[in-house]
Amino acid sequence: MLTGWIGFVTLGLIFARHFKSSWDGKTLCGVKIWFAIHRSFMLTALVFIVIAFIVIFVHKNGWNSQTSNPHAVLGCIATALGLIQPIMALFRPAADHPKRYYFNWIHFLVGNAAHLIAIITIFFAVSLASSGLNKDFYWFMAIFVIVYLLFHLFFQVHSWSAERKKNNEVKMLDLAGRGGNATQNGAPEKILVNEALRVIFLGIFAIFLAVILITMYALIGVA
């Protein structure tokens, strides 16, 4: 479950939110690269989540109604929302369809809601007596959430900054009367630098996720 929600879903959301403009013009398996990676991560996550969901129910011999901890209820909600996403994607309107705007927002809200609820659910797992987890698990979950938000902020600010610089350069060249030639000559190099920086930070974030997951599984093993 941790691998699905904290690993693959987290990376899938990062790609969908911040890498749509990356690798422009290039495709993978007939679709844009960001979408191919996003879809692969989300489908892989779904496999992990469904398997974990089934294993938990088998291990617990069904539903346990003797606890007031909302972990199980929230977990079911998160899993249900996760299952809705690929079904919803099957009915995705074409890019130029007037209802595509609404689909994008619904898909965005459902996906992020599922991720948020899943993270909250994991926090509640610590207080379950059967989990055997100690309070240290809270700290690592908190570190994950903080770093995740910081990377979202970094990618967003970087995109805004790059776009603003690009617009300012175009305006300056227009005022100088040099037309678009200089922009065309200089833009590719700057785009490559920006994309390289984003990919480097994405790699750092992926390594962080791997480390945090290994640490969490180590804590579970100790418990």
Automatic annotation (TrEMBL):
InterPro entries: CYB561D1/2 (IPR045150), Cyt_b561/ferric_Rdtase_TM (IPR006593). GO terms for molecular function: heme binding; metal ion binding; transmembrane ascorbate ferrireductase activity; transmembrane monodehydroascorbate reductase activity. Its EC number is 7.2.1.3. This is ascorbate ferrireductase (transmembrane). It is found in: Membrane. It comes from Trichonephila clavata. Its main location: membrane. The keyword Metal-binding applies. It is an enzyme of class 7 (translocase). Its cofactor is heme b. It comes from the Eukaryota. GO terms for cellular component: membrane. Keywords: Electron transport, Heme, Iron, Membrane, Metal-binding, Transmembrane, Transmembrane helix, Transport. The keyword NAD does not apply. The chain crosses the membrane at residues 41-59, 71-91, 103-125, 137-155, 199-220. It is a multi-pass membrane protein.
